[in-house]
Design a protein that fits this description.
The complex is a heterodimer. Chain A has one domain (about 25-105). Chain A contains four helices and no strands. Chain A has helices at about 1-15, 25-45, 50-65, 70-90. In chain A, helix 2 packs antiparallel against helix 3 and helix 3 (about 50-65) packs antiparallel against helix 4 (about 70-90). Chain A is globular and about 45 Å long. In chain B, strand 1 and strand 2 form a beta hairpin. Chain B is globular, with a radius of gyration of 22 Å. The longest helix of chain B is centred in the N-terminal third of the chain and has 34 residues, at about 105-135. Chain B has one domain (about 1-490). Chain B is an all-alpha fold. Classes of the chains: A mainly alpha, B mainly alpha.
Chain lengths: ~100, ~500
Amino acid sequence: MIAFSAISAINQILRTRDSARTSEASLIHGLAGLALLGLFVASASAMGFLTSALWFLPAMAMLGGERHGWRVVLITLLFTLLAWLLFHLVFAQSMPPEFIFGEVR
Amino acid sequence: MMELLGGVMAAITPESLLAMLAGTAAGILVGAIPGLTATLAMALLLPFTYTMEPLTSLGMMAGIYNGSMYGGAIPAILMKIPGTPSAVATVFDGHPLANSGRAKFALHVALCSSAAGAVISAVALMLLAPPLVAFALKFGPVEYFWIAIFGMTSVSLLLANAPAKGIASALLGVTVGIVGMDMVSGAERLVFGIRHIAGGINIAVLLTGLFAIPPALAMLEANSRRLGNATVTGVGITLREALGLVKTWLRSGLIGVVVGVMPGAGGNLAGILSYAEEKRAAKDASRFGQGDPRGIAASECGNNSDNASSLIPTLALGVPGNSVAALMMGAMLIQGLNPGPALFSQSGEVVYGFMWQMLLTAFMMLGVGFAGAGLFARMLRVPTGLLAPMILVVCSTGTYAASNSMVDVWIMLVVGIAAFFLSRSGYPIAPIVLGAILGPMAESSFRQALLISRGDPLAFAASPISLTLIALIIAVLLFPLWRRWRHKMAAA
């Protein structure tokens, strides 16, 4: 039954048209978003989450249709700084080494 | 009774109060932004709860749950866009009232009604969960096996538009749930050489991938449909006007509690049913749909009174009835707390403390809601195209922080990709989580029952409780067929 469920799900996914469900992301936006997220995770392994957030946030914002450049830059910097403070000071979590921010722990 | 009182002291520590307050404010903010839901906020928080005290993490969760239900009413009233699915019926009368210059009054009606619903629901949780636990102590492995099957079947069939898709989702969840070492033989199952998952897939990773990634991607889409400015106009509610809604609250509260206990039903059903019942019971129903405050009160009280009551089967039996309950259960499992009858005797202070937190956050919601009405309305202007990547960064970082492992982040990504394609194709996500939680429970109960009965299959239908559960499962399985037959008859 599990195998049949998996086959049925894959079959349905392949047959689903773009406009099938309006509450979900469109196929283009979704695939591009997932590709960027995959790159972000790969990049985070190499140069840390916060450093990677510096390119990931503007890239995703552009994909989401955000066109106010200064706002994107400002929010990206503020968010990254806030995240650094949160993980460094509040949670004291050990994270992968950061390319820009150094060791976060 | 003593345990219940002991829970108050545990719930009112400074850490717990602060967590509840932060959770309530965050919940209202999340609910106020269309596209963000309680499940998303709780999924984001989950990986960070490893280092928290049990009542700190549960208090935050309780605040998010209650707060987000009210938050969903804000865009429903001001913009005609329900912030959460549960606020659909709030639009009917909330938006006409806002259009007539009484937005502040409409928001206050929604706030008071949400708080009333949350109080009714928390009281129902306190009153109904302990007797259910006393009853559940009579259950053996056979009964737990059938309860797990009933939980998966009912939620899968009731949540999906197509029953087969619901069942398929639940079975995919069972597959994920059985990954790791077999508890009896010690053999590895579905590990495929990945040592990291030999102990099973981390529930927080699964929940984050399922409930955070697809909504975040959907928000990229929402950014292109930018919302306009919303203003809070007019005067607020008076005490006399609020007292005039008490009857509505009691009626809708009762509906919400009953709907909450039912597996697979949710706040949206509670809100719509309460609205319909209020309209039916009204002497003059002509004002409904044109800005009648009773419409807002019924919808908001109904969807909030579903909250704590939906946790009754989770706490008492260990069977979550919806995705939020599954997330709450995930938060408890992370803390080493196994929901079920044993939890009440082993960690009574935490369980009863959590019940009080569900009650206290209802009152906090009133304070935060009244104080921050203007701020929450301004949240509608937040560009979701910027929020989406922040959510994805937080859930990736949180997942890493939970186990200090990039493998978990990759697993979260894979789960998120699967969830994106499945939800686009109409497969409900909640049954996947229920399958992952209840599948292993059903398996271990099944094996225990066979060992105790020395392999006698008739043991599975020997007790009246088992027979009742089997009858319920058959009824749930036949329900879609009956529904289809009724539609055919109506069309003919």
